[in-house]
Amino acid sequence: MSLQPSKEIPPAQVESGLKLVTLDGVTSEIMVSLTTGTFLVAMALLLGASNLQIGILAASPTFNNLFQLLSIWLVRRYNNRRAICVYCQLAGRTFMLFVGILLIASKPELNWVILFLFFYYFFASIASPSWNAWMKDLVPESRLGSFFARRSAFTQATNAIMSLSAALLLDYVRKHHPSLELTIYGSMFVLGSVSGLIGCYVLAKTPEPLSYLSRENLFQLFRKPLSDPNFIRLLSFNSLWVFAVNLATPFFSVFMLKAIGLPLSYIILLTIASQLSGVFFVRRWGAFADRYSNKSILAITIPVYLVCLIGWSFGGIYTSLWANLLLLFWIHVLSGISLAGINLSLVNIGMKLAPKEYAIVYLSVRNIMTAGFSALAPIIGGLLADYFSDRHLLVNAEWVGPVREKTFHLVALNEWNFLFLISAVFVFIASQLLTQVKEAGEVEHREVRKILRKQLRHELKEYFLVGGIIQLHDYFRERIRRRTV
What we know:
Blueprint: H1 11-35, H2 37-46, H3 51-63, H4 69-78, H5 81-105, H6 110-138, H7 144-176, H8 181-204, H9 218-226, H10 229-248, H11 252-260, H12 264-291, H13 294-312, H14 321-352, H15 359-387, E1 393-400, E2 405-413, H16 415-434, H17 445-464, H18 466-484
Antiparallel strand pairs: 1-2
Helix pairs in contact: 1-7, 1-8, 3-6, 3-15, 4-6, 5-6, 5-8, 6-15, 7-8, 7-12, 10-15, 10-16, 12-13, 12-14, 13-14, 13-16, 13-17, 15-16, 17-18
């Protein structure tokens, strides 16, 4: 199979390539859903991980982005982004396979798992800039928002199905066959890595437009994005944003597993609620980003995520499990809605502000600059969680009456709750930097919010009122009829 780029790609081949990119997203998401997030944290805790080791595991993917300079050198040397992306992902996902075999064969030291995952993230970080620059040339700019929103919807739906299935299996094994739990984690890593290797084959079949990268000195190339004032403002916002988010995110699962004591299936169901919320909204965010601007979407979604972080600070304060679950449910739903818009907009605005001939340089500089902040945040988060482990802040309100006395927990902060509140402070500071970023076609976010509210109100009426249900039934019946004709 030839991996050489093409000077011209016919429109039909472009469309075929976009379908392959979506399929690659699904196969890769199977790997991600089985080997990262809550499952990786739960596996690490099973091996006796500390807060600091959890932080190191979370920091490894972003720390390795510092090596993306190698990707630029390789693209300049070979001018073949597809080959670089495919071969690096092939190598990285093989290391993921080694982790699975290691977990099945024995109960390894966690440091060995961290080492193998380091190499997996190392090769993935080299593949990432090549993939981003390749997609910028392959996907029509007018469809960036809608295409990646649609792709994201497929990948999140895949994640929900795989995660829930694995969580139910693990809860069953924990209860009835606890000695096999580590073997199940190993099998999940093997299955995930095999799916990822299939994704490499799919990417190898995806066409690549021939690109041109200036032969200027490498350091002179890097000076271009660093001398772009608007791009520097985007880097400042993006760096502080990833620091704020990664300070707390790796410890959400730890908090639910250890502080609240939720089963894995409950945590995954909450995660699915978040993902489904994202799936429902991501296409809308994509359409609004194409129609208005990515910055307008960020100005709406970041405050919502800020509220979610503050909500995490109150997690676990109720004596009733269902009250805590209700709070966590709404936090996950609102997080899914907001992060769908935030992640999509950050990818799109980075691509949009990068000149075509220097796209890989701009995107790599952004990834390298933010990598340090992303990697440092969870390590600092782990240290802060350890620092606050024996410190508590409790604020109660008491009702004393002749018949009954009642104590209401208003605030109960411990090691993780403190961390979530600190993260919220940094998110607020980052949101202030966003106002300085300029984007072509920018629309006042109040106007976008007004239009979005009107559209959502209309859609909610259609979906949840009786007349809307009838219309939905007719819609599906018509679709089925068309397929059978």
